[in-house]
UniProtKB/TrEMBL annotation:
<keyword id="KW-0645">Protease</keyword>
<keyword id="KW-1133">Transmembrane helix</keyword>
<dbReference type="InterPro" id="IPR029058">
    <property type="entry name" value="AB_hydrolase_fold"/>
</dbReference>
<dbReference type="GO" id="GO:0004185">
    <property type="term" value="F:serine-type carboxypeptidase activity"/>
</dbReference>
<keyword id="KW-0812">Transmembrane</keyword>
<comment type="similarity">
    <text>Belongs to the peptidase S10 family.</text>
</comment>
<dbReference type="GO" id="GO:0005773">
    <property type="term" value="C:vacuole"/>
</dbReference>
<dbReference type="Pfam" id="PF00450">
    <property type="entry name" value="Peptidase_S10"/>
</dbReference>
<dbReference type="InterPro" id="IPR018202">
    <property type="entry name" value="Ser_caboxypep_ser_AS"/>
</dbReference>
<keyword id="KW-0378">Hydrolase</keyword>
<dbReference type="GO" id="GO:0005576">
    <property type="term" value="C:extracellular region"/>
</dbReference>
<protein>
    <recommendedName>
        <fullName>Carboxypeptidase</fullName>
        <ecNumber>3.4.16.-</ecNumber>
    </recommendedName>
</protein>
<keyword id="KW-0472">Membrane</keyword>
<keyword id="KW-0121">Carboxypeptidase</keyword>
<feature type="transmembrane region" description="Helical">
    <location>
        <begin position="12"/>
        <end position="33"/>
    </location>
</feature>
<keyword id="KW-0964">Secreted</keyword>
<dbReference type="InterPro" id="IPR001563">
    <property type="entry name" value="Peptidase_S10"/>
</dbReference>
């Protein structure tokens, strides 16, 4: 088949699929509107006080002394776009602790399912109950988890066009509107120190949101932004993705010959660019098949030393890291506790959550049409402008992650420091957590820093909870990471 007729039939089949999806959408949204119009708008009134968002008790949760809230904030009246949040106050003395917004990546994956229930939230689902996470970040802060953009998790748009062509710019704007309106529900947090943290594709979400805040503050001081922390983030797609070949090779996952092909014939950023544009060249196909064969599908790319898998934690990385399909994929996690838990009706009720345009809650959105090519727009420059505006930035890397390897992040942070003429204020050194080395760190101008977390995967708080908490506390206190045992 000639490439033009092939691409023609490809595009017409895509068109057909889209038409079918649209019809299905229209059908369900009509059903939905007739079912809930009566109650829906009343619930979502932006000036509603937060008392109706208070969680009495999550099914199966242990007894705790802190308050939890969950609910919706409308970010677009016209399309009835509503973002879902889950908020846990600090375990001890919340009024003296900062507010931290946590965002997961994807693009299109859930901060509730990944961040709150698999990583650094107060509970982890286990069978029918929740168990306490002893290293929860709400030991140090009031934690706000946001399901963004619209179409992720329980966040929805009644008008299905709300899911079309969503990209970084729309997401940043919606997140800004969300925060402003969330402060109307929780005015006591309005002037609290605010930090934004997250990982993976949040390397795009967070700098862009923080940048909007800085701009907004010039007109009217609303956001008391004190710092940004980015875990294994996509900051400059070519540097981040292409450091993968060296990572694979240095960890013994690929041969010398394949390493050469993976850098010379078709590097990873070229493959991803082609993949997102719907045409993978024969040479890239061949290289990726070879890389796939050698790295093996039994090794978790998000943690090359890990044997087990937790699917909700992995899903957010699958999107920025498309895999060449070769035959059957082996799913080593048949059941995922988080998905089961969040799809229980009693849990949804306790969270004041509802499903709109989807049958069930999913870790990563199936209905969101994200502009994936936005991954190619660098955000390291935005990080630079935050630093210039006096906002401290920490980039941290789990050192077992091959998806966004530490080598790429470290290079980018160092280059930025040189560009901004920042002196090294903490030379590269180890830091400690408990009696062990927690990782390595370096900082520049007391405002930009890089740290690795030893033995951590793409999802640092999931894979190294105790070390991640030490890192988080130092970040909030704007103190260097512990130097001594």
């Amino acid at each position: 088949m000639s490439s033009s007729s092939h691409s023609h039939s490809h595009s017409s089949s895509i068109l057909l699929t889209r038409v079918v999806l649209l019809l299905v959408f229209l059908h369900f949204s009509l059903l939905f509107v007739t079912n809930v119009t009566g109650t829906h708008l009343h619930h979502n009134h932006p000036h509603h006080t937060h008392s109706s968002d208070k969680i009495i008790n999550l099914p199966g949760q242990p007894k705790v002394g802190f308050q939890q809230f969950a609910g919706y904030v409308t970010v677009d009246q016209k399309k009835h776009k509503s973002l879902f949040y889950y908020f846990v106050e600090a375990e001890i003395d919340p009024s003296s602790k900062p507010l931290v917004l946590w965002l997961n990546g994807g693009p299109g994956c859930s901060s509730l399912g990944v961040g709150a229930f698999s990583e650094n939230g107060p509970f982890r689902p286990k069978g029918n109950i929740l168990v306490k996470n002893e290293h929860s970040w709400n030991r140090e802060a009031n934690m706000l988890y946001l399901e963004t953009p619209v179409g992720v998790g329980f966040s929805y748009s009644i008008d299905p066009t709300g899911y079309d062509a969503v990209g970084d710019a729309v997401t940043a704007r919606d997140n800004l509107v969300f925060l402003r309106r969330w402060f109307n529900k929780f005015p006591q947090y309005k002037h609290r120190d605010l930090f934004i943290t997250g990982e993976s594709y949040a390397g795009h979400y967070i700098p862009q949101l923080a940048n909007l805040m800085v701009q907004f503050n010039k007109k009217e001081k609303v956001f008391n932004l004190k710092g940004v922390a980015l875990g294994n983030p996509v900051l400059e797609f070519a540097t981040d993705f292409n450091s993968r070949a060296e990572y694979f090779w240095s960890h013994g996952l690929v041969s010398d010959l394949t390493y050469k092909m993976f850098t010379k014939s078709c590097n990873y950023s070229r493959y991803v660019s082609e993949y997102y544009r719907g045409y993978v060249s024969p040479v890239c196909s061949k290289v990726m098949r070879q890389v796939g064969r050698e790295t093996s599908k039994f090794v978790d790319k998000y943690d090359v030393t890990l044997d087990v898998c937790m699917s909700s934690v992995l899903s957010q990385s699958k999107i920025i890291s498309p895999q060449e399909q070769n035959g059957e994929s082996i799913d080593v996690c048949i059941e995922d506790e988080t998905v089961n838990y969040l799809n229980r009706q009693d849990v949804r009720k306790a969270l004041h959550a509802r499903l709109v345009n989807v049958r069930q809650w999913a870790v990563c959105s199936n209905i969101l049409d994200y502009q994936l090519l936005d991954v190619e727009i660098p955000t390291i420059t935005v990080v630079g402008s935050l630093v210039k505006n006096g906002i401290p930035v920490l980039v941290y890397s789990g050192d077992q992650d091959s998806v966004i390897p530490l080598t790429g992040s470290r290079t980018l942070v160092h280059q930025l420091a040189v560009k901004l003429k920042l002196n090294t204020t903490t030379p590269y050194r180890v830091w400690f957590a408990g009696e062990q080395v927690g990782g390595w760190t370096e900082s520049y101008g007391n405002i930009l820093s890089f740290a690795t977390v030893r033995g951590a995967a793409h999802e640092v708080p999931y894979s190294q909870p105790a070390r991640s908490l030490v890192l988080f506390k130092s970040f909030l206190d704007s103190r260097p990471l512990p130097e001594m045992l």
